Every structure is written in structure tokens, then in C-alpha cells.
Amino acid sequence: MIHSLFLINHTGDIFLEKHWKSVISRSVCDYFFEAKEKAGDPENVPPVLQTPHHYLITIYRGKLFLLSVIQTEVPPLFVIEFLHRVADTFQDYFGECSEGVIKDNVVTVYELLEEMLDNGFPLATESNVLKEMIKPPNILRSVVNTLTGSSNVGDTLPTGQLSNIPWRRAGVKYTNNEAYFDVIEEIDAILDKSGTTVFAEIQGVIEACVRLTGMPDLTLSFMNPRLLDDVSFHPCVRFKRWEAERVLSFIPPDGNFTLMTYHVSSQNLVAIPVYVKQSISFFESGSCGRLDITLGPKQTMGKMVEGLTVTIHMPKTVLSANLTATQGNYTYDLATKVLVWDIGKLNPQKLPNLKGSLSVQAGAPKPEENPSLNIGLKIQQLAISGLKVSRLDMYGEKYKPFKGVKYVTKAGKFQVRT
Amino acid sequence: MTTMQKLLQLPVNAVNIVKTVQSQVQGQEEDKSPVLTPDGGQQAWYSALQPDELRHLRSGGTGGGGSGDQEEKAPLEEGGGGGGSFQNQPLRHDDLKEMLDSNKDSLKLEAMKRIVAMIARGKNASDLFPAVVKNVACKNIEVKKLVYVYLVRYAEEQQDLALLSISTFQRGLKDPNQLIRASALRVLSSIRVTIIVPIMMLAIKEAASDMSPYVRKTAAHAIPKLYSLDPEQKDQLIEVIEKLLADKTTLVAGSVVMAFEEVCPERIDLIHKNYRKLCNLLIDVEEWGQVVIINMLTRYARTQFLNPNMNESLLEEGNSGEKTFYGSDEDEDEDEEEKEKKAEAAAMAKRKPYVMDPDHRLLLRNTKPLLQSRNAAVVMAVAQLYFHLAPKAEVGVIAKALVRLLRSHSEVQYVVLQNVATMTIKRRGMFEPYLKSFYIRSTDPTQIKILKLEVLTNLANETNISTILREFQTYIKSMDKDFVAATIQAIGRCATNIGEVRDTCLNGLVQLLSNRDELVVAESVVVIKKLLQMQPEKHSDIIKHMAKLTDNIQVPMARASILWLIGEYCEHVPKIAPDVLRKMAKSFTNEEDIVKLQIINLAAKLYLTNSKQTKLLTQYVLNLAKYDQNYDIRDRARFIRQLIVPTEKSGALSKYAKKLFLALKPAPVLESPFKDRDHFQLGSLSHLLNAKAGGYQELPDWPEAAPDPSVRNVEVFALLERVTTLTSVPEWTKCSSREKRKEKKVEKPFYSDSEGESGPTESADSESDSASGSESGSGSEESGSGSESEESEEGSESEEEEEDEEEKDKKKKKKELKKPVQETESEQSSEEEERKHERKHERKAKPRKSDSESESEEEEEDSESESSQSESEESESETEIKKKKKAAESKPPSKPDKKENKKEKTEMSLLDLDDFEPAPSPQVTPVNTFLSNSLVTDLEGLSLSDTVLSPATISPSSALKNYELLHRITGEGLSVEYCFSRQPFSPDANMVAVQMHFTNNATSDTKNLHMEDVKLQSGMRVKEFPEIELLPAGETTTAVMGIDFCDSTQAANFQLCTHTRKFFVSIQPPVGELMRPFFMTENEFRKEQETLLKSPGQLMGMNEITEKLTLDAKCRNEHAIVQRVTTAANLSRVPCGSDKECSPPVPPPDHPVHRFAGRTVTSSSLVLVTVATKEEGAAQLTVNCEKMVIGTMLVKDILLALTQ
After folding, report:
1. Average pLDDT per consecutive 10 residues, chain A (418 residues; last block may be shorter)
2. What is the model's pLDDT at position B35?
């Protein structure tokens, strides 16, 4: 299946290679570089490329390309999903997935890759199993290791792979038993010029952090599970019980994991927490334009809107922006032509406003389209869909765990067309 | 370690020999090393790092984990340190070797880390091989692992030396620890050294029968490795695969199927015996294995089952065949022949109704839950399986899951959109509800935008085209010009596909001609050109318009295109064309080359059609062109002059000039690039590239006739064995293992009724019902039986005829000889025997189980016995079905009541036995109530003229859904279910009656069942049920309680107490149960609707919520709609049109409107529901209710009921 893996930074250096079968010359990457050149933007490089003898499947994550070489038919999503899992694992181990951090931990990375694939077929991809075999680095351990010569590799054998619950490691022990669930909802919306909703839906995810001793069997139930339109689960969730009773019943992995993601469709009315009044115009004659944006609260359910930002990808011809903001700061990046207005909290009494003029390259024609606004926001203690966790029960263990649920609403792909 | 050292020391000289040989080997190595590209820069970088690295080594190896960063930062000391540094200084790695030879593990580890870091960077470290390989038996696990990494990387290049390590692995293969055995096999098989093929083969064979499933899994992984090393071993390997395929653990399943796919994908016959097992294990296999198995099973199913859409596709084909027959007059004979064939096939199909193989159904049912996987590859695999295998009506389920993947990483989006694009061509309706999910954001990468555009274009039809065009309008203004160009093409395609909007699109495109961007204009002109070519009769207006534009448009490409158009269709614009030519002639010298060429073309065409007016002009243009700077233009001018102007010299060619120039050019076809891509298996690499990738297995066509289904039958003992393995699964999988048992139940007729019907008996329809049901609840069985008996009324005759006479006799005898009770008893006893048998097996299997497993043993056994009990119950219901069938045959519709009763009975018993899925899904239950419901609606019809009948009787009481209050496990034997009985609660009319069923599954009696500690939202009230003093073991009882929910769907929480325990439980009503039917006439209904909507004085205005929907295919008749709505909500139907009610036989209007009315229980606010049907299953749902919350929720519920 997956023959080789090359890690390439955004300038085009191959800084790590791993082969699971016979070695393949790194010159295959030239085809990729060619495509990258052609595409310009790294996001536009086709994920699947055909070369005379191989197929290249690439993902782009954190300014890195993970390029895998394939020789025979394999579902492309299989490879893509796996590469993302590799990147996730790096993130899990080292806190981020970047060139520097991979170079710093090259041996651990190599050991991980060795365990994750066998002859190109995924072997152990569960973080709990991997962590049992290869301990993630931390400062204390690396100090101890240099002094004593002991290693990162666990000397116990990984029993996780043998169990029927591969996602949970055995013999978990905590003095404080706690289970936290974050219900995070993101509003994806497209608003048109006049502020009416073209398309809106809610994407939710429940992130869990479970630190419980032993083998707890948890049941999480909702006040209003009917809201959920489409769901996908971590493999630990028993699907049949969800189907029948709409409760999440599972033996959790140890540590942080994504319990479920869900989707509340656009058929339900999606509350849009803010409104945007904007006017952006460029003048036909004279190289300038005007910009005036005001934001206000709309359906906030009585909660404070925080972390409000407006990001605008300006047309290439806009040279500079001379604006005044009544609240927050704005920056205009000349290289990327991105205007970011960081507002912070939304004060309903005094609406934030950004106003001023834009200077356009002299002689350039007036941009045809006004740039659309990407809104970022955050509302604490609110799940905009109205989803509520009703209770969490634990079976199989005797102690009383500490339980907590947090709700957050964020703007996802929230775009206002102008 | 010591043994290894001994081993290595034995041939001390061997190492020495090696050393001498080394330099030689190395030299070759350099030459052939595929790692190092001749890329000079890269190599310089590597070698430049070397001195620095050595410095680190000299400082004692405390430099911190061979970090690449330090090395990078280090100045390039040795400038262009020599590309051939390895060859020049072969002893460079001396320090590393020293470290490896030392006794300190920490030094070895440090050295190995450096070496692995070198490998990771693609640097050659092969000269260290002898030094490294010595450490293969090192005790330090990390050192050992890193040595393995090194070994696997370089063994292929240094085969002789690699052999030294083999004995270590061979020893490892015999280790008592399974993990060591596995890892030894893994490394051994990864060393690509041909000499050890026999050793590998032996090792694999041994491991394949290892006790540990993990070792067997590793063996499965090793198979493709060995195969790629030596394909000659194929036959032996297939034997191993065959053996491993029979393995019953989830751990092995994925890996062995992967091996199967790589080694012998053509040996589909190996799957037969394991098919059902694979289907059943699937949900518990790890995600990567799931993908491989699903893809393989798709192919398998294509060879083994009949096309579920056979009848439809035959008919479709028949139609298209007819079209071509009428459309073209060539090959008439052949066509006729074909048609005959098709007609024959269609007739065949009609004669023999399609029956889905239960195994086919099993596959569909077991893969469906995987649509909820977090792994995109799994979701895609299931989606392609459904697309390729499922009956048309069921494919829709995958749309939602695929749309969900669009939120994922952009690479995932890219692949999914490609597949969606292919699907939308075949099954447009599937994605139509998700149209908006494909709207494009300005921040999407261009490749994603273009794919989304493709999908939007494919989804466009008459109803949604206006919205789509409005979207396109915003896209056209985008800054991303490639995307704009694609949008214009998309508009063109919409215009060709949908006649109504062609003119609008054309006008829009014409406006785009004045765009500043060349790309946009060029693209629009090209698209306009294509559109005009399709509709040659209507385009003179636009051509005129475009002719006017020549004054303004400066983009040469666009000017050229316009001129071509005028020339091509000059007959349609006879007056304007010469004028354009005149203008062009004037500006000829200032035009761009492509425009000049088109001017010449235009002149030539005009000369041929209208020589009078344009003769002089043409000559003028040709003269100008003759002296043009561009030789292309000069050549063209000469050529055309010769061709069109008849002279003495010019031969016969000029006669044909008109034909040459004004030949009818075929209209370009605007087709999706994704057309016909579905002959590749979706989700495959080949599909994505639209080219066959190496190793791609064609998706076979459906067979004409189904191959023998009995090949998949497994011998009885094997089945029993499987049962025992299932029971030995630890507790956590109980849920899924129970599923398996359930599935086994479904399969059961196959296994046990060997002397009875061996073939599939259920019709496709009833099958699909039971399938959708079994996923969500226990309703499946009885729903299956319900629809079956119903079906038997209609189609039993034809079906029965095909059955053997003998069989019939047998059955009759059975029926006559045994009374029902006896029969079930005998069935049960036989079941019990089987169970005993199973138990025996289980006990035998016990010693093998590990500790953790035996913990759960007791409970397992318990549930096991129950499951077998439920099995017996199941068989009971089956026999009942048979009986019913017989009864139906003899006197079809006479006693529906009795049947109803029976069904209800089985339903109850089934429900009691079922553990985890007590609530039958809403879409299933109605099926069994279909008959009674139609009765109800009939009754309703009667009641219209006879309003005395109380509304309570109208509500379909049989359509009750059961919800679980307390599960048998959590309730320690006590299980409680509840349903909303829809009867008025006599003590308090404002309360909703909740009927509770208590079942005591425990072995001891339960006493003093009562409620306590009721926690309610403010305003809510509860009337507790009377205390149940005693519930003996195994008994069931019911009680009724009343809850005033205050018209909200808040749950009522309380404690259910027995004499020993208290259980926290809660009851949450679906919104449909918060109302009671209210009878009103149509006129009253309308009046209420209007006055409530309009009157401004009303404090609480009536809210109206309207939703458009597409009715489910099975729900397009009146009965079905009424029944589904009344099941979803406790409403009564409003009789329609007073004139119609008097005489029922009057044909119903084409698009009837169904009205329902009710009042909320607590506040008695009116709830009015209107379902207006429209053409082709479209419908509009309107709900009026004072309470907005109730209204919205009700809309959602009814919508769900009607669309599923």
C-alpha cells in the first residue's frame, strides 16, 4: 500500500524519508515539485498525482507536505486519512507538527512511523497504543535519559494491540478521577450583501478529556438528542445504543480524544449571533476606495460575544489602508493583502466600527468584486444549537469521578459576501 | 545477548572477511544506491554536515539525541566537502562503530540514534552494517528496535551480512511471549533477502496456526511481503490465506483480507465460506481493515448477487432502446433484435420478481452503521458499496455522510467531491437536499471550488436552477479568474441541460462580454458560441447584439470569436454582416493577428453567400492581407483567394468552396468530465485519475443469474464454534456481539431450515423494511412479518406456484398435525438442545480464555441463554408467519383482526426479550400497523358523515412506540418500558397518559414497585402510578401514570423504587405526544387558520411554519401520508372536501391536501397541520400553532416521518 513517505517543507526541502518496502529514490518528488510550481498556492496542489511508475498522494499540514508514494491501486482517502493521522500523532507527541519539531525528534518520529505501518499497511494508529510503546518526550524524561541512558521506548510490551479495546491502555491509575467534556459548536454560514442568510449550519464536536482509573464504562445522555442531524463517533461509542436510545455509551480512551462530531442541519433555523453592516467601495477614478464596517449583536442568547475578529482578503491592487477603529486594532499585511481587525468583546452599547479609506495602486482598474468578510467570534457557555448534556453515568468502577461539561460556540466558516 | 555474541563470535573471521569485502561492497553500493540522487546540492549538504556530526560524537555523545537542528545550524566547515566523501574516507564512521562495540547500552543507543537520524535524512549508512548487526540481540529494547529499523532498511543491499541476524529471529519465533514472536516474524519477513524465502515460508505457516491472534495477524501481514519477494510462492501462500480467512477474530480479519487482495484477488471462491463471518465481524474490525474488507466485499457481491435494480434498469434500457430505434434509421435489424432480447429480459424480470439474497441484505445492513465512522476512508468505502450494490431507493442514506466529509481537510474534500460528482450524474436526487452544502466560499482552494461547481452544475434542474444561477452570479465576480472561467462554463452547461433558462443564461453571458478580464470574455464567447450552435434557429438577436459589441470589445480573442460567429451564421444576419465586414476592413491594419484571420474568414464566407454586396470589400481585405507582416495571414489570404474567386487556373476546388466554408459544424457537446466514470469502483485511485491504476481490480458486472447461494453455507459445527467464540468476547463488545446474534437470527432460516425452503423467500420489499428496522430496533422482525403477510395477500399466488409441491404438502401436514402451541414447544426444545450443545462447546473453550474474559463469563452465559431463547422466540414467530401465510392463502382478507392480535403478541414477546434496542424506530413501526391504519382512515371516512364518533377512536392506537425507561442490565433484572397510549388520562384531562410495562427478568421477585422523588420543571405535574406490590420473577405487568408536561418536551425525572433498589429514570415525550386529536371540519379548519393568522388583536399570534419536502417513495399515497403523520403526532384527520366525503368512490384530486388538527394537552392551543401534495412526490408541510416551539419541533418530526 503505502510505499514510502517523504516529509517536505514549504520551500521544497525533503527533510525526512521513510521506506516501508524497497527504497524509492527521492527523485520521485520532482513530479510533485513540478505540480507545486504550477499550482502556486500550496493549497492548490492536487492531492493525488500520477507519475510514470508511481502515484503520489500528498497532504499539506502546518506548512509541511507529507508525501506518500504508492505503487498500486489503493483508495486515496485511505492514504490521506492515514497521513492526517500521522500528522495528528506528531501533534499529539510534540505539541505541534512542524519541521523544527520533527527534526528535533527525528528518532522518535522514525520509531513512530515504524510502528504505525507494517509493509505499508496501518498497524497501530491509536494514540493510546503508540504511547504505550513509545513514550512521548518531555523535559524531565530527556534529562533522566541522558543521565541514566534509559530510553523513550517503553520496556513493557504493548498489550493494547492485543485487547479488544485498542483505544484504551491497560492499568490506568489516577488519584483524581475526572471526566471533562467540551461541547464546541461552530457556525458555518454564508450571508449575502443584505445580511440575509444564504446558508447556515452548525457543526459540533464533543472533545473529551477523560482521566479515570480502571475500565470505566460511561454513558452520556443529552436533553435533546433529536437536534442532531448527522453524527460520527470515535470507534469506542456503541452505535447500536445510539440508534436505539440516543445515548452515548462507551469505554473511553485515556486522555484527550474527540468523542463525536455532529451536524445540525440548515433546516433548523440557525441563530446568527452578530450582524454586519458594511460598505466597501472602490472608485472608478482616483486610486482609492472606502470601507465602513459596523458589527452588532443579533441573536446572542444573552451571552457575551468575545474574540470578535474580521478578516478581509483584499484585492491585489489595494496598497494600504488608512482606517480608524472605534474599538480594537487593525493590521494590514501588505504581502498577503489581508486586513485583520481584532475587536475583542462586543459591546452592545457601543458598536465597534471600522472606517476609512483604502489606497489602490494608481492606474489599476477598479476591482470587480468587493472582498468578502470572514468573521471570527466566540461565545462562552453557550451551545448555539441548544444542545444540552443531561447526565453522565459511570458503570464498572466504584469511585465517584469529577464530571464537567463546557459549552463554547465559535464561528466556523462564517463569511459575509459584500 | 550472550548467545547472540557467541553466534556472532563463532565466525569471527566471518566478520573480518566482511570487513575486507566491505570496501568493495561499498563501492558497488555507491554506484547503485538509489537513495542518493545525483542531485549535487543535496549531497553537498549532507556531506557538509558530516564533520560537525563527528565533532559531536567525539565529545562523548551527550549532544542530545542526534538533533538535526544543531547540525543544520552548524557552519558548513568543509565548504564543498566532496561528493564522494564516502568513498574517499570509508572509515568516517569509526567513532560510531566504536560506540556500537562498547559495552554500555547508553553509548550504543546514542550511536543507533545517530544512525537512524542519518537514515531518516536519506543519508547512506550502509558501511556500518556489520557493526550494527552485531547488536541485533541487544537487551535494551530501544537499541534492539533501532537495529531492526536499520536492518530492514539495509538488509536488501547487504544480503550476506543480513543472514547473520536470522538466527536471532528464528529464536524469537519460539519465544513464549506472543509479542516477541510477532515482532520477530515482522522483522524477519521485512528483510528482503531472497535466500531466506524458505525460512520465511516456514515461519509464516507456523505463525498462521499460532495460539495468539496477534501473531496470526502478523503472519497475515507477512504474506504480501513474501509474495513480493518471491511470487513463485503464491500457491503455498494462498493456502495460508485460506486458513487465515477462516480465522474468527477481528484482529486478523482486516490483515488477511489485505493479504488476499494483494496476493490472489481473483480467487473470489475463497471468500464464500467466510462471507457471512466477515460481514458480521466487520463492525469490530479496526478502521483500516474495514476499508479493505468493504472494498473486497463490494467486488464479491458484484459476482454473487443479482442486480437489485435489475427490473428498473431493464425497463430503462428498454426505453432507451426504443428511442434509438425511432431516432436513427440505421442498423434497424440489429436494433430490433436487441429490442426483442430486452423485451424478453423484461418479460423474464416481470415473471420472476427480483428477490434479494439475504446475504446481500446482510452486507448492506452491516455496513450501514459504519457511515458514522470518524474515518473518512471508511465512510467512503461504505458509500461506494451502497452506490454499487444497494437498491436505488436505499442509496440515499450515504448522501448525508458524504456531505459531512466536506467539513474535513481539503484533501479529503477533494477526493469526496470527485466521487460526489460522479454520483450526482447517476443519482441526482440523492444530493439535491444538500445543494447548499456545495456553495462556494471565497476562501476555498481553487481546485475545491471547481469541483463544487461541477457538483452544483450536475444538481441543477428546473426547480432549483434559479437559486443556482443566483449563486453563480456571485461567483462570476470572484477575484479567482480560473474559477470565474469554470463558472462560465458551468452556466453554459446549465443552459444546455435546462431549456427554460437558456435565454437567461445567454443574456447573462452576453453581458459578461463587456468584462474587463480577457479570460472571462474569452470563456464567455466560447460558451456563447457553443450555445448558439445548439440552437441555430433562435440566435439572430444575440448575434446582432454581439455584432454591436465589436465596437467596444477590445479583447482580441473575443473579437475573433464574434467575427467567426457572424461569418458562420451570416445568413441569419444578412444586413448586419456586410456592415461589420466594412468596419473591420477599415480597422484591419490595427487588429491583432487572430482577429485578422477571422476577418479574412468572415470576408470569404460573405463572399460566398452575398457576393454582390461584399465582393469589393472582400477583395480589399484580401489585398490588405496580402501585404501583411505576418506570413500566416499572407498565406491565408492567398489560399482563400484561390479558393473562392473563380479564375481560369483554379480547378474544381472553387466549386466546393461553399461546402468547404459553410459546412455544418457539429455542435460541441457540453458534458461533465465525470460522465461514465462510475465504471471504476468509486473511491478508488483509478476512479480519481480516470485511468486504470496498477493492481486495480475491475468491478465485475452483475451476473445474469445468481450463482448458487448455498456455497456460503457453513457446516453446523462451524456455526456452533462461532457462537462459542462470540460468547468468549469480553464484556465491552457485548453490544456488538449481541448484534451478531441478532444477525444470526436473521440468517437462521439458512442454517436450520435445510430441509425447508433453501432459497430466499422474502421479497425485496419486505427485506428492505426489515433491514431498516433491525438497525434501529427490535421492530424489525415483526415489521418484516407484517409486510410479508401483507405481501402474501398480493403476490403469494405467483410465489407459491414456484414452490415445490412437496414442500407444500409438508407444510400442510405440519400445520394439520401440530397445534400452534405444540409446534412452538417442539421448536423450543430443539433450540434448547442446540443451546446445550453450545454450552458444552463453551465449557470446552473456557480454559483458553484469559482472566479478564472469564470475569464477564457469568453475565455472558446469562445473556447467551437469553439470546438463544430469543432465537426460539424468533423461530416461533417465523412459524407463525408461515401459518399466517397459509391462512392468507386459503381465505385472504377475511380476518385481519385476528392477525393483528397475533402480531401484537409476537411484538410484545420480542420486545421483552430484546436487550439493547427496545425502541422500534419510528419508520418501522408503521409498517405493521399499515392494515389497521388504513382501517382507521376508512373509519375516519365514515366518521365524517357521522360526527358522533369520538375522536379518541380515530387515533391509531396500534401505532404506539415503546421507549425504554430502565434497561434490564441497569435495572438488575427489572426492565421497564413505556409508551404513550394516546388515551385520555381519566384522573386529569391535562395529563398525558403514559403506559408502563414492567418485566421482571430476575430470578427473584420484585416488591413494592413505586415512584419517588419526582423532579420536574416548574409547572409540570405527575400523577404517579399505583404501587405494584409484587412482581414475581419472569412476570410482566403494566401500569398507567399521567404527566402534565406543560406543553414542553422537558423530561420528567423520577426515581423508580423497588424494595431493594432505586433507579433514576426519566421520561421525555416526543412533541407529537403533547397533543390530543381534535375533530373539526375542513371549513372550520380553514377559518381557524385564517382568523388566527390574520387577526392582529390576538395576543398570541398563530405561528405558521412552512417547509417544502419530497415525500418518501413509499409514502405517496393518501393512506401512507395519513398514517405517517398520525404516527408522528397524536392528531386527528380533518375530512377533506364535503362533497367527496359523501361518495367515497369519487376519484381523489390529483394533488390532495391532507389536514390534521389537534389541541395541546395542557393549554388546549390549536395545532393545525396541512400536508399539500404536489407533483412527483413534492409536498408542502404547514404547521400552525400558537406555541412556536411546539410548531417547529412538530414540523421537524413530521418532516422526518414523511421523508424517511
Report:
1. 90 90 88 89 88 91 91 91 92 88 88 88 84 74 58 55 73 88 92 85 91 90 86 88 89 90 75 87 78 86 87 86 88 88 88 88 75 90 88 88 92 88
2. 40
Cα–Cα distance, A146 to A132 (Å, whole number): 21
CA distance B1180 to B1172: 5
CA distance A407 to A18: 42
C-alpha cell at A207: 472533545
Q: What pTM did the predictor assign? A: 0.65
| pLDDT > 60? residue B744 | no
Would the CB atoms of A149 and B104 count as touching at under 8 Å? yes
In this predicted model, what pLDDT tens digit does every residue of B815-849 receive, in sequence order? 444 444 444 444 444 445 555 555 555 444 444 44
Q: Residue holding cell 435495572?
A: B971
Dihedral pair phi/psi, residue B167, rounded to 5°: -65, -30
Cβ separation of A240 and B477 shorter than 8 Å? Answer: no
Q: Where are the beta strands (DSSP E) in B563-622?
A: none
CA B935 vs CA B944, B957, B982: distances in Å: 14, 12, 18
Q: Are A78 and B291 in contact (CB under 8 A)?
A: yes
Q: Contact B1196/A27, CB-based, under 8 Å?
A: no
DSSP per residue over B935-979, as a string? HHHHHHHHHHH-TTS-HHHHS-GGGPPEEEEE-TTTTTTEEEEEE
Please tell me the distance from the alpha carbon of residue B341 to that of residue B321, in angstroms, as a whole number.
11
CA A306 to chain B, closest CA, distance in angstroms equals 23
Phi–psi pair at B1090, nearest 5 degrees: -70, -50
pLDDT of res. B1016: 74
Residue B376 has its nearest CB partner, among A81, A371, A395, at A81
For residues B1069 and B992, the answer to whether their CB atoms sit within 8 Å is yes
Binned at pLDDT 50, 70 and 90, residue B720 comes out as very low
In chain A, residues with a C-beta closer than 8 Å to the C-beta of B478 are: 369
- Whether the CB-CB separation of B1057 and B1065 falls below 8 Å is answered with no
Contact A45, B448 (CB under 8 A): no
Q: What is the mean pLDDT of residues B297-306?
A: 89
Q: Do the Cβ atoms of B828 and B878 come closer than 8 Å?
A: no
All structural domains of chain A = 2-148 (3.30.450.60), 178-270+384-416 (2.60.40.1170), 274-380 (2.60.40.1170)
DSSP H/E element including A249: strand A247-250
Question: How many other CB atoms sit within 10 Å of the CB of residue B537?
Answer: 6
What distances in angstroms separate CA B1137 from CA A389, B937, B1133, B1134, B1154, one per listed residue? Answer: 47, 15, 12, 9, 10
Most confident stretch, A391-395, B154-158, B531-535:
A391-395
Cβ distance of A82 and B119 shorter than 8 Å: no
For residue B42, count CB atoms less than 10 angstroms from its CB and return exposed for 0-12, middle for 13-18, buried for 19 or more. middle
Cβ pair B445, A43 in contact under 8 A:
yes
Residue of A nearest to B471 (CA): A198
Tell me the pLDDT of chain B averaged across its residues.
Answer: 70
Of B167, B203, B140, nearest in space to A148 by CA: B140
> If you measure CA to CA, which chain B residue comes closest to A153?
B142
**What is d(CA A385, CA A201) in angstroms, rounded to the nearest whole number?**
9
The C-alpha atoms of residue B437 and residue B1064 are separated, in whole angstroms, by: 41
Q: How many CA atoms lie within 13 A of B153 on its CB side?
A: 32
Q: Do B400 and A229 touch (CB under 8 A)?
A: yes
Q: Return the beta strands (E) in B322-370 as ranges.
A: none
Closest CA–CA distance from residue A110 to any residue of chain B (Å): 7
Hey, how many other C-beta atoms are within 10 angstroms of the C-beta on A246? 16
Q: Would you call B59 helix, strand, or coil by DSSP?
A: coil
